[in-house]
Inverse folding.
């Protein structure tokens, strides 16, 4: 157990360094964008005097390095500063958005992870049957279609033609939980379709890989029924790759949802990031990107820890 | 007048009002001429005007162009979300009526000294903020001063540079003094930036709270997502038929249209022109295709070879087939331009200037005269200028080939187009929002020393007329001056103006609107929430 804690600590330390590097890259990439924030805020209607006044008000007359260090000083004590455009604190600006994104990701994950693992086990069990083929073709088709296309198809059938679900997922504070699930079903379903294939096929491949092993042969020879061979004998050894691919897809559910948010008008963090980039609102861009980076780092860490925990050989090294 | 003719006249008036042929103010005027007292006429207007609006319901309004980073600061109003919201929860001194004339909002009446240097606005004593505080001269003064002074970051600062002083004469009278006469001041007050906000008492305004004196008050909401508003009882004007307004930001065109088709919203502020024809086939949806004052211009730098020769400029103006561009690029949602920057829905539009048509032969002979046969020019454009802007320039290049002109279309990045390309490249495509009066538009982009003189055009007569017309209170003289200026722009200026883009918005089942809608913004001059109603 001590080894795992050590590993976690080491990886978290490395993660912090990665985040620092990412923050530098993001800052200077935002600097590289043509036009500046004052121009973006005042739009086409800005005069040079206006721009100068606004730049001064926003502190843009200072050199880039000074502004970055100023931001970093706050960031190390978890003060991510204020949005340059609106003046509101960054945590306030994106807090609720991030919560919405997490909700949608959780909603999709709760459906997608069990469905894809169960499907993966089933197609491994019934491999090369019609069921296997159909499931493979269907999931590959859904993963090969761009998300916005899947979203539009779902809107066409479920919202326009059959009227079962609303086409836009705008949220209201006074909605009941059931309403919320109903309203966000189509975006969640789109995400489910996008991530299922990857997880299902990895589960199938990992299990089939093991089926040629001598110990599976042994289990078969002693008369264990096929489903038990897979669930009891093969699956425990297949967890490591499955957990890895699940973690990767969970990260995608949080960071890759911009298109789905746009199509369904869902107030998540992706839309906030796009707005912030177009306005060159550096603190907000920085915070969003760091959240995304941290999501990847933490989920990868979780996957590694998960893989160790499910593998006795790694848990008790000689 | 006998009682009988009186009745006939009244009936006719009432009919005209019902059809929406006359505005409320002309109605009052004619009714007064017919010997009816003001209060009786008001009552008559209310009962006869178009289809008797019924009250109630929640107006769900899908609005495009809204960012998370928008604010309530009137000085930085720029997106449609901000502008539509401003016209729903705040008031202005004056407003554009549905027939595109000027009408009263917070100001009941206004008058100028003969030199048009001093304007006095009488405020409506019934106007109040949502907090309950009455609107006083101080609120108006501080709201206007928000756009003045060195520290101001307002985008509308330029409109008020001539203002030297704004003072109060009692609680409900505001006097604005100008350095130079300006007959258009009451029109300027309709600019979307000049929203009236409550004063803090120290010369600043409290725009942050979102308080206003408009028809609806904000209950809750967040920029870039949605707004919930409810009727402000005691609003100082007629209208505000809906009980509640729910403004939902729908930036994705597909989401917007789907939401309208599935009935998730009652109105969308913009529909995609490509699907315009399809949407018009849906019997539950009414599409409004309304001419606007917003224009696409193609400015040529008049001080740069080859555009320094007026024959070359005219040849380029003759080499564009506007009808084909409107049909193929705008899908019919545009109004043909005539190379002067004033649209038919704007004041002082001269209706007798001959339309310039596509004439490649004349263009060719002009170029021959100028010694510029086989002219080669570059035109800079970005897709963000207008949907289909690049295609428009490519089509123009094809049309110009008939005149022996080779136009090379340079596709520029959309990002930073207005800081890096506009005003810098000698020939480009630009989109302009509507300005309230010809004076504002001409001063902004055609005057010799204007920062945005996008054509670098220097015309002495034009500049002289511009200054004269500004302070001229005689409407006929003024109209004549603007006509002459338009002729100069058309025949000497550096602007090729292919078309004015139309507002194209759509209403779902049951949403009624008056016969006339204001053309200053989409959705009835941004005032759909207070002017439209649900069919009973």
């Amino acid at each position: 157990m001590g080894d795992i804690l050590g590993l976690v600590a080491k990886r978290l330390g490395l993660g912090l360094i990665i985040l620092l590097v990412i923050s530098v890259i993001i800052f200077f990439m935002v600097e590289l964008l043509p036009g500046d924030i004052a121009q973006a805020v005042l739009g086409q209607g800005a005069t040079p005097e206006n721009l100068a006044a606004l730049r001064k008000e926003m502190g843009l007359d200072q050199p880039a390095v000074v502004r970055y260090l100023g931001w970093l000083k706050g960031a190390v004590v978890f003060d991510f500063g204020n949005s340059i455009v609106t003046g509101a604190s960054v945590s306030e600006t994106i807090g609720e958005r991030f919560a919405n994104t997490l909700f949608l990701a959780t909603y999709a994950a709760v459906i997608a992870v069990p469905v894809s693992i169960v499907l993966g086990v089933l197609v491994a069990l019934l491999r090369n049957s019609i069921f296997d083929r159909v499931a493979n073709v269907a999931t590959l088709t859904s993963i090969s279609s761009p998300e916005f296309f899947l979203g539009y198809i779902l809107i066409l059938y479920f919202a326009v033609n059959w009227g079962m679900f609303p086409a836009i997922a705008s949220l209201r504070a006074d909605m009941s939980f059931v309403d919320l699930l109903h309203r966000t079903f189509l975006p969640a379903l789109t995400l489910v379709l996008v991530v299922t294939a990857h997880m299902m096929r990895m589960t199938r491949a990992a299990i089939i890989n093991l089926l040629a092993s001598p110990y599976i042969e042994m289990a078969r020879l002693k008369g264990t029924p096929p489903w038990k061979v897979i669930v009891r004998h093969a699956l425990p050894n297949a967890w490591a790759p499955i957990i890895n691919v699940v973690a990767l897809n969970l990260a995608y559910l949080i960071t890759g949802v911009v298109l789905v948010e746009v199509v369904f008008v869902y107030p998540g963090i992706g839309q906030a990031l796009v707005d912030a980039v177009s306005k060159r609102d550096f603190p907000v861009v920085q915070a969003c990107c760091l959240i995304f980076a941290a999501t990847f780092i933490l989920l990868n860490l979780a996957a590694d820890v998960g893989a160790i925990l499910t593998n006795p050989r790694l848990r008790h090294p000689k | 007048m006998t009682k009988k003719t009186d009745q006939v006249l009244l009936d006719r008036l009432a009919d005209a009002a019902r059809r929406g042929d006359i505005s409320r103010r002309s109605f009052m005027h004619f009714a007064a001429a017919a010997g009816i007292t003001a209060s009786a006429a008001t009552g008559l207007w209310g009962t006869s005007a178009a289809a008797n609006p019924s009250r109630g319901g929640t107006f769900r309004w899908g609005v495009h162009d809204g960012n998370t980073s928008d604010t309530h600061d009137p000085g930085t109003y720029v997106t449609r979300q901000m502008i539509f919201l401003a016209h729903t929860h705040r008031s202005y001194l004056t407003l554009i009526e549905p027939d595109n004339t000027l009408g009263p909002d917070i100001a009941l009446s206004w008058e100028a000294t003969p030199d048009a240097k001093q304007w006095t606005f009488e405020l409506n004593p019934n106007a109040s903020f949502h907090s309950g505080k009455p609107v006083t001269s101080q609120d108006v003064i501080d709201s206007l001063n928000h756009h003045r002074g060195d520290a101001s970051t307002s985008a509308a600062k330029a409109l008020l540079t001539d203002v030297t002083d704004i003072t109060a004469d009692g609680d409900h009278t505001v006097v604005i003094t100008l350095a130079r006469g300006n007959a258009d001041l009451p029109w300027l007050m309709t600019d979307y930036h000049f929203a009236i906000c409550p004063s803090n008492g120290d010369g600043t305004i409290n725009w942050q709270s979102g308080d206003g004196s408009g028809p609806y008050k904000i209950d809750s909401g967040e920029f870039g997502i949605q707004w919930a508003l409810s009727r402000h009882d005691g609003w100082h004007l007629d209208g505000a038929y809906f009980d509640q307004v729910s403004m939902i930001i729908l930036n994705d065109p597909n989401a917007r249209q789907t939401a309208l088709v599935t009935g998730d919203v009652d109105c969308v502020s913009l529909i995609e022109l490509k699907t315009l024809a399809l949407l018009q086939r849906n019997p539950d949806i009414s599409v409004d295709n309304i001419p606007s004052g917003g224009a696409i211009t193609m400015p040529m730098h008049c001080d740069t070879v080859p555009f320094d020769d007026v024959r070359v400029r005219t040849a380029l103006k003759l080499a564009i087939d506007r009808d084909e561009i409107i049909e193929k690029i705008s899908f019919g949602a545009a109004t043909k331009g005539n190379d002067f920057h004033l649209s038919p829905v704007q004041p002082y539009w001269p209706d007798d200037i001959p339309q310039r048509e596509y004439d490649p032969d004349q263009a060719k002979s002009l170029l021959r005269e100028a010694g510029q046969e086989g002219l080669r020019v570059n035109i800079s454009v970005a897709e963000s200028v207008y949907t289909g802007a690049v295609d428009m320039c490519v089509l123009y290049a094809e049309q110009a080939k008939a005149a022996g002109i080779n136009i090379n279309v340079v596709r520029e990045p959309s990002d930073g187009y207005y800081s890096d390309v506009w005003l810098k490249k000698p020939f480009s495509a630009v989109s302009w929002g509507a300005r309230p009066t010809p004076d504002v538009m001409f001063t902004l982009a055609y005057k010799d020393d204007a920062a945005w003189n996008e054509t670098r055009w220097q015309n002495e007569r034009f500049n002289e007329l511009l200054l004269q017309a500004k302070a001229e209170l005689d409407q006929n003289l003024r109209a004549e001056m603007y006509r002459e200026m338009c002729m100069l722009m058309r025949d000497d200026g550096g602007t090729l103006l292919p078309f004015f883009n139309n507002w194209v918005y759509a209403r779902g089942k049951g949403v009624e609107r008056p016969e006339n809608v204001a053309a200053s913004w989409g959705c009835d001059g941004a005032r759909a929430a207070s002017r439209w109603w649900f069919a009973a």
About this structure: The longest helix of chain A spans residues 90-125. Chain A has 15 helices and no strands. The domain at 101-269 of chain A is CATH 1.10.3720.10 (MetI-like fold).
